[in-house]
Structure of Putative apoptosis regulator protein of the bcl-2 family:
Amino acid sequence: MSSETPTNKFTNVVGWTNRRSPIHHLTTTQDVINQGKCLCGEYIRARLKRSGLLNRKILQRLRSTMEFVPPSCVVVRETFPVLNGMGEELERMHPRLYTNVSRQISLEPWGELTEPDSVCYLLHVVAKDLFKTDITWGKVISLFAIAGGLAVDCVRQEHYDYLQQLIEGTTDVIEEDLSAWLVEKGGWLGLHDHVHPPQTEITFLGWMTITISTLFVIYLISVLLKYLGSNYLSKF
């Protein structure tokens, strides 16, 4: 029997490495916390929709949870498609890992979530193990995928009011374990740059170098073709 724990499994499947973005976005700790909360709410909404569980009642609960969060439209708008896309890919690659999450890590029969604080506790247990050695964008995305899986469990167990605690719990993890790292990486936009690195601007000197190199290659090819052509004609 394997000694690998569920939290170790979450760590092992997200081996994406860090790549420092060439652009360091100016951001603060409070920025990444507020934006992370927005991203969590959006991710949970998308995950419930993918699972066919999103309805008007749940949507209203999610909106009320985000009501007092300062808007960060640009950051969330640019980051969420990347976060959601990569999270969905994780779910597709490891469906058993990000489904029935509470059953995998809870000691309660059938993973029953008995009280609102239990969902936050389970998330914190996984997060502490997930980030105990290092932090990578892959692990950050895995955290959101785990939160999405727990959200599905909450709704299927008809604990709709637990969704607010789940979002708050994820925000606490971001504040306690990830905020300093996120600020260093340029905030949540660093994820966008990690996946889609900005194009490096080429200077005038760079363009001149490329142009001269291209012309030189063309010249060499023309000389080579003339040489081959003259040798071919000399045979007749």
In short: The two ends are 80 Å apart (CA to CA). The longest helix spans residues 204-234.
